[in-house]
Design goal:
Layout lengths: L1 H5 L8 H11 L11 H13 L9 H4 L9
Length: about 70
């Protein structure tokens, strides 16, 4: 995953030098790249509470568990 991110983040640095910064900044990447559904729900609720998105947006709109591991 870090190599994939490196294509877009700190791409001007050699991978060996960028790796540590990428890992330190990747606090939302879980082992196996699993998606924390509770965290996404918290964010969704926050967006709705601040009227940044319509109330009709649901977890089913955002997350298709057939494409990503969830926990």
């Amino acid at each position: 995953m870090v190599k994939l991110i490196h294509k877009y983040v700190y791409a001007d640095r050699p991978y060996e030098k960028a790796r540590g910064s990428i890992i330190a900044g990747a606090m939302r990447i879980n082992q196996g790249a699993a998606l924390n559904v509770a965290s996404v729900q918290d964010q969704l609720d926050w967006f709705k509470a601040d009227k940044l998105i319509k109330d009709t947006v649901t977890m089913q709109t955002l997350v298709d568990p057939s494409y990503v591991k969830t926990f």
